[in-house]
Design a protein that fits this description.
about 15% helix, 12 strands, 1 helix, about 45% strand, four-stranded antiparallel β-sheet, mainly beta
């Protein structure tokens, strides 16, 4: 009986030591998590870009509209009818101090019959409440000012006018695509 008692006692000690060794090798840790939800970036008010009226000449030229709503002509183009020019623009709504990219794609959608419009491109970008931090071509990097929820981007453009162009309206679009960085 003593042998059985010693065997049971010995087995109990072995199990206890085994459990103690396993518990000593286990650790527990908590990893905290967090997230910040920011305002979605959206385009608010859109201001159309207008070149005003112009008369073609015997040589091709351009109409240039600046971001300060002034216009000029080059080549054979003569400006008529007062200014009639307004820079285009968009209001960007979003998170303060958050950087974003904006890409522009200008395109002509209609021209008078028989005309082929020349260059149609952006010729200037200015901002109000957005700090432009860089960019190339038709892509700008900017940031909404701290403590603000929106900023305005103004666009100037150049429109090529062919020599002896037929009378009529020219229409186009500037597509703006915005993304947070």
């Amino acid at each position: 009986m003593t042998t059985l008692r010693n065997t049971i006692f010995g087995a109990g000690v072995a199990v206890a030591l085994s459990v103690a060794a396993t518990a000593a090798m286990a650790e527990t840790a908590n990893v905290t998590t967090s997230a910040t939800i920011i305002r979605p970036i959206t385009i608010g008010t859109v201001t159309p870009l207008a070149f005003g009226s112009a008369a073609p000449g015997s040589t091709q030229g351009t109409i240039v509209v600046t971001t300060s709503n002034t216009r000029s002509a080059t080549g054979g183009v003569a400006l008529v009818g007062g200014t009639g020019a307004t820079s285009g623009g968009v209001v960007i709504n979003g998170q303060d101090a958050q950087a974003f990219n904006i890409a522009y794609t200008p395109s002509i959608t209609s021209v008078p019959s028989g005309n082929v419009v020349g260059d149609y491109s952006l010729s200037g970008i200015t901002t109000d409440g957005c700090g432009v931090t860089g960019g190339t071509g038709n892509i700008a990097s900017a940031q909404i000012a701290a403590s603000a929820t929106s900023c305005t981007i103004k666009l100037g453009a150049t429109l090529g006018v062919p020599a002896n162009a037929a009378a009529g309206a020219v229409a186009g679009n500037i597509q703006a695509v915005i993304n947070y960085n």
